[in-house]
Amino acid sequence: MQTATVIDHDLNYELRPVHWGRAVSAGLVIGAVFLLFSRGIPWASSGMVSFTVMGRELKSPGLVDGGLDFTVGVLHMLCSVIYALIIIPIIHRFRPPTAILMGMAIGFLLYLASMVVFTRMLDLGIPQHELNPFITHLAFGAVVAGFYKGQTRRRVPLEDEV
Predict the structure, then answer these.
(1) Where are the domains of the chain?
(2) In the Cβ-directed half-sphere of 61, how many Cα atoms lie within 13 Å?
(3) Helical H runs in 37-95?
(4) Rounded to two decimals, what is the model's pTM?
């Protein structure tokens, strides 16, 4: 049994609409993965120990509070979907390698916005280490872009399937 081939070079590549449902699902799936690797670094402590919002601590890691953990987890997933909805309309017209690099660049811009909000506007009383959110934002932008591009690749049926 033959499978459909993936065509990535059709003439109307730039005219494709954004698949908003797939954008939301990309944010949710990649957000869930990044909830487990909460600091964007797989060898760092798991997000199941101390949830973060896109790599940023909102509570002391030693503090045990189920309600606060739930709230931080929900905030992380909400940010993941919002970030995906910001990144995907910009990258959807590019081919996958370019889209991934663009996603990383947009992740950097989102990191800068996040840093301003958390260091200038909010004083949580928790020392912030900027390497973890920086890596998380770059990686999230790249991975969500790649995931979305993988979801939306067009499949062309073979001649015997038509």
Answers:
(1) 18-151
(2) 13
(3) 66-91
(4) 0.78
